[in-house]
Amino acid sequence: MDGRTGASLKLTILNEKGRVWTMVAGGGASVVYADTVADYGMGSELANYGEYSGAPSTEETFVYAKTLLSLMMKYKHPDGKFLIIGGGIANFTDVAATFTGLIKALQEYADDIKEHKIKILIRRAGPNYLEGLRKVKAASDKLGLGIKVYGPETHITAVIPMALGKIDPLPEPDLSAPCGPPVRKMIDLKGKKPTPKGHPPAPAGTKHTLVTATPETTSIVYGMQNRAVQGMLDFDFMCKRKKPSVDAMVFPFSGNLVKFYWGTEEVLMPVYTTTKEALHFGTSGAVQKHSNASVFVNFASFRSVHETSMEAMNYSSLKTIAIIAEGVPEQQTRDIIKVAEKKGVGIIGPATVGGIKPGCLRIGNTGGMLQP
């Protein structure tokens, strides 16, 4: 599945007889959740490690959740098991859409979940999170699963000690209330040691970074990431840029024109099959205007990101390359950095959501999407 989608779907079984299972959105969150389970003394019971992120579809989430649940049912434990479904605040994943897939899986395994005494807690935030939590809670009540759901008002990892019985469950939020900013209690710092002063200053930026962008800076986007490109154009329009920050897209499997919106007007974005064609030579051999683009936003998967990034650095007009993919091998990353330093190219990533320079440029899905 992971190889056939632009989303990230990872799953590694650590202990198939373990009691603690996680379904976490986001690579960073998956690390935090695994560490927190271990911090509470349940590391030996951690059954799996993985993530579902990058805006997976409803069907992809359904298959992922179904796979996870089927693995949980292989062995019974007399004391039952825990399924912790969590994540931070999604940038561009539609939480309601993914939870629709989750609900389908819960419906299919409802009897098994009760038979295996599986306790489920959810903590999620992001676009349409409130609708998603409402749907899951309604399904839980109907199926008799007793799922507890929480939003951004609850700390990202608070569901872990609640699930493990280390602390009493917090009251669930009022899901009928309108969506608003999270409200949390202040942390009591009495008796805490003050942060030591005299920290060294942050290192200076590289020669070519997002900091050097101007309102005229333009980019080439590698990959058919229409949602990300539209988000970049919306940012441009709100910043009152004179023209979109995306000059063209590159997609190896088809070249054509794709429709986007510039405010209320429609614009057609050219799509080329190679970076060379986009930056230098079209099918007629004529020089393309996109040779002025200085930023390369690379949405290629970790399997091909090395090849595409190295190719992009062959073109002197590209001064900054943002590598979105996670899981890029260390040796390939070192190779990219070595060539970039030699050619004076700034690298953002790998494993980055991008970046923003106010009034100038937004890279990829940074900052998330507007909440409907």
From TrEMBL:
Pfam families hit by this protein: Citrate_bind
InterPro entries recorded: Citrate-bd, Citrate_synthase, NAD(P)-bd_dom_sf, Succinyl-CoA_synth-like
GO molecular function: ATP citrate synthase activity
Superkingdom classification of source: Eukaryota
Signal peptide: none
Entry-linked Gene3D superfamilies: NAD(P)-binding Rossmann-like Domain, Succinyl-CoA synthetase domains
ATP-citrate synthase citrate-binding domain ranges (all copies): 1-165
GO cellular component: cytosol
Biological processes annotated in GO: acetyl-CoA biosynthetic process; fatty acid biosynthetic process
Protein name: Acly protein
